[in-house]
Q: What sequence folds into this?
């Protein structure tokens, strides 16, 4: 295997799309991968440079890389010769160091490459200003090269009009929920247009997007309660999901949520604030508490939040049980934080735990 530090992975051998941003990187990568597959292209998704060395050796041509802050800070991303770079979003109250780190790959992007930038983000224009690459902008709330307008949200699909360079291009329908997923979808549309595909052809690829495990992954119980499992675990992600859900939910939103041990007290409080703001009822519980006291984490979540529409249940399975038994037809019970994960880290122990399997078991047990 090639040593990473010995050479760059050359864009002339691979078509490499990089994704930089706080939220949505995995979903964006999977949307691109699906589109490539439907177009007959052999593609892979990954997040570490070693993976791309393997792709190089296997002569795979299309690669999608999630460029995390750690990968950029550690300069691993600088060894990838990106053909296109996508900027999705920045963290709320991002530090100057975080912003500088996220900008670095765009600063290094050559003239002949492409930068795809979300200009609805408060820092989007700054990303445009630091790159010499060809720029394609996308947005929902302001004029851009790629726009979504006349949006219609439903819990099982999203429909919008696609505008390209100010003119109507086509109607787009996807099975993904939420405004935040419109942004994720626009990145793939922008990229595929940049490499020569027609908007109507792209729209056909998006109709049958596969369900991404743990990303607004839902099922309907026989009594008409919608159960949703979502990986959202930071304030921005939780707020975005619940805000969109509040616009389409015909019943009440009941949220089960905790916070990972690797979070600050400020982040925890913001998670609690967003959960309480958009939910009829919240059950605060354990996420991956690791070596930290679970009660202390929950105290940080509720500290400073004046709303009282919550219960505390340390045991996660019990918390899900409480939420499900609280729900009525047309309500949505949403389980945040674990998503696709199949384990829970508590103290020194790792135990099997899957939100979706647990919820399914409890629905059957109590005939919900």
A:
């Amino acid at each position: 295997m090639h040593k990473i530090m010995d050479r760059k992975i050359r864009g002339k051998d691979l078509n490499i799309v990089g994704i930089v941003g706080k939220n949505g990187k995995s979903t964006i990568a999977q949307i691109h991968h699906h589109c490539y597959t439907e177009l007959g292209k052999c593609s892979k998704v990954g997040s570490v440079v070693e993976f791309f060395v393997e792709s190089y050796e296997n002569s795979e041509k299309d690669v999608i890389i999630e460029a995390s802050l750690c990968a950029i800070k550690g300069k691993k991303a600088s060894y990838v010769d990106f053909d296109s770079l996508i900027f999705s979003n920045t963290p709320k109250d991002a530090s100057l160091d975080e912003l500088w780190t996220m900008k670095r790959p765009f600063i290094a992007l050559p003239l002949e490459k492409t930068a795809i930038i979300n200009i609805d983000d408060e820092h989007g224009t700054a990303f445009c200003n630091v790159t010499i690459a060809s720029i394609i902008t996308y947005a929902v709330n302001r004029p851009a090269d790629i726009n979504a307008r006349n949006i219609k949200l439903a819990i099982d699909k999203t429909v919008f009009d696609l505008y390209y360079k100010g003119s109507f291009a086509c109607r787009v329908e996807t099975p993904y929920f939420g405004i935040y997923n419109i942004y994720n979808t626009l990145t793939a549309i922008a990229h595929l247009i940049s490499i020569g595909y027609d908007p109507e052809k792209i729209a056909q690829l998006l109709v049958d997007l596969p369900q991404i495990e743990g990303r607004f992954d839902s099922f309907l119980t026989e009594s008409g309660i919608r159960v949703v499992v979502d990986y959202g675990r930071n304030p921005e992600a939780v707020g975005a999901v619940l805000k969109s859900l509040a616009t389409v939910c015909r019943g009440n939103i009941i949220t089960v949520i905790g916070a990972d041990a690797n979070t600050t007290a400020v982040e925890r409080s913001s998670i609690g604030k967003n959960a309480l703001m958009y939910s009829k009822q919240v059950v605060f519980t354990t996420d991956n508490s690791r070596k930290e006291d679970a009660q202390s984490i929950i105290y940080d979540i509720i500290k400073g939040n004046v709303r009282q529409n919550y219960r505390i249940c340390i045991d996660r399975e019990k918390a899900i049980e409480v939420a499900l038994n609280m729900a009525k037809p047309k309500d949505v019970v949403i389980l945040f934080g674990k998503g696709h994960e199949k384990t829970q880290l508590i103290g020194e122990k790792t135990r099997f735990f899957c939100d979706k399997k647990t919820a399914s078991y409890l629905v059957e047990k109590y005939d919900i």
Notes: The domain at 4-206 is CATH 3.40.1190.10 (UDP-N-acetylmuramoyl-L-alanine:D-glutamate ligase).
